[in-house]
């Protein structure tokens, strides 16, 4: 079975498990989605969804975010990881958006030029706010793509390129979310029985299963 054939079977399983695909991060429009995704780095979606309602009530637009200033932004997002730098980035990005006309537009160069916005964040906004085909890769997707033999998994860029090559373009926006949900529900990073997994059990190589399920020996102390 080649990679495309394997991806087609994986897609059928994911479509069956997740026929409805909600967006994990609560938001109101493209700008608040951008903010939520930027906050989600090294933080759970659950935690982001806990802090954003009050932030979005106070600053639902770039103009209002600028008015808050970095210190007050920090008060709203203190519980998320890397909060001080994220507060500064949100304020700087809001200024950049205002300088560019005040709107979030579906343009890769514009989005990736904003403070605190990398390719993954831009990809999420493009796919979920504007329905532009994209394949954002997070740690769940990189882990599963490697387990399933769809990518070598050494870099996010390589994983994205490999997944785009095996999944049809029209499925990218749904497929990346389905893989994230599957990773959280069925395919965790630690203490995972690959032989009992609905996908790993047949998609992972015997070598991969053996490597992941063999207890790692701890180095002896001297």
CATH topology of the largest domain: Endonuclease Iii, domain 2
**Would you identify the regions where 5 or more consecutive residues have pLDDT less than 50?**
none
Shape: elongated
What's the rounded overall pLDDT mean? 94
Order of helices and strands: HHHHHHHHHHHH
What is the count of distinct domains?
2
CATH architecture call of the largest domain = Orthogonal Bundle
Q: Please tally the β strands and state the result.
A: 0
Find the CATH superfamily of the largest domain.
Helix-hairpin-Helix base-excision DNA repair enzymes (C-terminal)
Please summarize the sheet with the most strands.
Answer: none
- Proportion of beta-strand residues: under 5%
Number of helices: 12
The separation of the N and C termini measures 48 Å
Radius of gyration: 19 Å
Helicity, as a percent range: 55-70%
The helix-and-strand class reads mainly alpha
Catalytic activity: 2'-deoxyribonucleotide-(2'-deoxyribose 5'-phosphate)-2'-deoxyribonucleotide-DNA = a 3'-end 2'-deoxyribonucleotide-(2,3-dehydro-2,3-deoxyribose 5'-phosphate)-DNA + a 5'-end 5'-phospho-2'-deoxyribonucleoside-DNA + H(+)
Keywords: 4Fe-4S, DNA damage, DNA repair, DNA-binding, Endonuclease, Glycosidase, Hydrolase, Iron, Iron-sulfur, Lyase, Metal-binding, Nuclease
GO molecular function, one term: 4 iron, 4 sulfur cluster binding
EC number: 4.2.99.18
């Amino acid at each position: 079975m080649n990679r495309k054939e394997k991806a087609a079977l994986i897609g059928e399983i994911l479509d069956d498990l997740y026929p409805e695909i909600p967006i994990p991060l609560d938001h109101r429009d493209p700008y608040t989605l951008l903010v939520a995704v930027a906050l989600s780095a090294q933080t759970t979606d659950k935690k982001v969804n806990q802090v954003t309602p009050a932030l979005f009530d106070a600053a639902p637009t770039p103009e209002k975010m600028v008015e808050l200033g970095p210190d007050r932004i920090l008060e709203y997002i203190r519980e998320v990881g890397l909060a001080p730098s994220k507060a500064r980035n949100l304020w700087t990005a809001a200024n950049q958006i205002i300088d560019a006309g005040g709107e979030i537009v579906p343009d890769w160069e514009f989005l990736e030029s904003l403070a605190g916005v990398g390719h993954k964040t831009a990809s999420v906004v493009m796919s979920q706010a504007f329905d532009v085909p994209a394949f954002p890769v997070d740690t769940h997707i990189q882990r599963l793509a490697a387990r399933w033999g769809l990518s070598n998994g050494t870099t996010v860029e390589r994983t994205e390129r490999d997944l785009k090559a095996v999944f049809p373009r029209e499925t990218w926006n749904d497929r990346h979310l389905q893989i994230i949900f599957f990773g959280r529900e069925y395919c965790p990073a630690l203490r995972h029985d690959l032989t009992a997994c609905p996908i790993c059990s047949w998609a992972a190589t015997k070598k991969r299963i053996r490597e992941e399920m063999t207890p790692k020996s701890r180095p002896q102390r001297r």
